[in-house]
User: Fold Phage head-tail adaptor, putative, SPP1 family from Sporanaerobacter acetigenes DSM 13106.
Amino acid sequence: MEIGELRHKITFQKLTTATNENGFEVEAWENYKTVWAAITNLHGREYFEAAAVQKENTVKFTIRYFKGLDTSMRILFRGTEYNIISIDNIKYKNKYIEIKALEVEKSGQ
Assistant:
Protein backbone atom coordinates (compact mmCIF):
# COMPACT_ATOMS: atom_id res chain seq x y z
CA MET A 1 0.00 0.00 0.00
CA GLU A 2 1.24 3.47 -0.86
CA ILE A 3 0.99 6.16 1.79
CA GLY A 4 -0.94 8.47 -0.57
CA GLU A 5 -3.87 6.05 -0.54
CA LEU A 6 -4.48 6.88 3.14
CA ARG A 7 -6.18 10.17 2.30
CA HIS A 8 -9.51 9.99 4.15
CA LYS A 9 -9.78 11.08 7.77
CA ILE A 10 -11.89 8.75 9.94
CA THR A 11 -12.66 8.74 13.65
CA PHE A 12 -13.07 5.70 15.87
CA GLN A 13 -15.67 6.06 18.60
CA LYS A 14 -16.22 4.07 21.82
CA LEU A 15 -19.51 3.64 23.63
CA THR A 16 -19.20 5.12 27.12
CA THR A 17 -21.50 5.42 30.11
CA ALA A 18 -21.88 8.71 31.96
CA THR A 19 -24.22 10.13 34.59
CA ASN A 20 -26.53 12.93 33.45
CA GLU A 21 -27.68 15.94 35.51
CA ASN A 22 -30.61 13.88 36.89
CA GLY A 23 -28.31 11.13 38.18
CA PHE A 24 -29.24 8.59 35.50
CA GLU A 25 -26.67 6.63 33.55
CA VAL A 26 -26.72 7.36 29.83
CA GLU A 27 -24.70 5.83 27.02
CA ALA A 28 -22.98 8.05 24.48
CA TRP A 29 -20.39 7.63 21.72
CA GLU A 30 -17.08 9.31 22.49
CA ASN A 31 -14.27 10.01 20.01
CA TYR A 32 -11.37 7.62 20.63
CA LYS A 33 -8.84 8.17 17.82
CA THR A 34 -8.71 9.94 14.44
CA VAL A 35 -6.57 8.40 11.69
CA TRP A 36 -6.01 8.46 7.92
CA ALA A 37 -7.55 5.63 5.90
CA ALA A 38 -7.95 4.15 2.43
CA ILE A 39 -11.62 3.40 1.77
CA THR A 40 -13.21 0.91 -0.64
CA ASN A 41 -16.90 0.11 -1.14
CA LEU A 42 -17.33 -3.67 -1.11
CA HIS A 43 -21.05 -4.17 -1.76
CA GLY A 44 -24.50 -2.87 -0.92
CA ARG A 45 -28.09 -4.05 -0.96
CA GLU A 46 -31.63 -2.90 -0.32
CA TYR A 47 -34.29 -4.87 1.50
CA PHE A 48 -37.69 -4.35 3.12
CA GLU A 49 -38.16 -4.48 6.86
CA ALA A 50 -41.14 -3.24 8.86
CA ALA A 51 -42.73 -1.62 5.78
CA ALA A 52 -39.65 0.52 5.07
CA VAL A 53 -36.79 0.24 2.61
CA GLN A 54 -33.49 -0.49 4.34
CA LYS A 55 -30.11 0.13 2.72
CA GLU A 56 -27.05 -1.83 3.75
CA ASN A 57 -23.55 -0.94 2.57
CA THR A 58 -20.31 -2.77 3.44
CA VAL A 59 -17.11 -0.71 3.32
CA LYS A 60 -13.44 -1.66 3.77
CA PHE A 61 -11.21 0.78 5.68
CA THR A 62 -7.43 0.27 5.61
CA ILE A 63 -5.41 2.13 8.26
CA ARG A 64 -1.98 2.05 9.86
CA TYR A 65 -1.74 -0.40 12.73
CA PHE A 66 -2.47 0.75 16.27
CA LYS A 67 -3.28 -1.14 19.48
CA GLY A 68 -6.63 -1.05 21.22
CA LEU A 69 -9.00 -1.36 18.27
CA ASP A 70 -11.96 -3.73 18.73
CA THR A 71 -15.34 -4.57 17.21
CA SER A 72 -17.31 -2.79 19.94
CA MET A 73 -16.18 0.52 18.41
CA ARG A 74 -17.65 2.27 15.41
CA ILE A 75 -16.24 4.48 12.66
CA LEU A 76 -17.37 7.99 11.82
CA PHE A 77 -16.62 9.09 8.25
CA ARG A 78 -18.10 12.24 6.66
CA GLY A 79 -20.94 12.28 9.19
CA THR A 80 -21.89 8.64 8.57
CA GLU A 81 -21.51 5.92 11.20
CA TYR A 82 -20.20 2.44 10.40
CA ASN A 83 -20.42 -0.58 12.72
CA ILE A 84 -17.24 -2.65 12.67
CA ILE A 85 -17.78 -6.24 11.48
CA SER A 86 -14.19 -7.52 11.37
CA ILE A 87 -10.62 -6.39 12.03
CA ASP A 88 -7.65 -7.96 10.19
CA ASN A 89 -4.04 -7.23 11.16
CA ILE A 90 -2.73 -7.85 7.63
CA LYS A 91 -0.26 -10.76 7.64
CA TYR A 92 0.23 -10.11 11.39
CA LYS A 93 2.96 -7.59 10.55
CA ASN A 94 1.54 -4.78 12.73
CA LYS A 95 1.79 -2.38 9.77
CA TYR A 96 -1.76 -2.08 8.42
CA ILE A 97 -5.22 -3.05 9.62
CA GLU A 98 -8.08 -3.87 7.27
CA ILE A 99 -11.52 -3.21 8.76
CA LYS A 100 -14.83 -4.29 7.28
CA ALA A 101 -17.69 -2.13 8.49
CA LEU A 102 -21.40 -1.90 7.84
CA GLU A 103 -23.38 1.28 7.22
CA VAL A 104 -27.13 0.83 7.60
CA GLU A 105 -29.38 3.65 6.44
CA LYS A 106 -33.00 3.45 7.42
CA SER A 107 -35.71 5.23 5.47
CA GLY A 108 -39.29 5.76 6.55
CA GLN A 109 -38.53 6.75 10.13
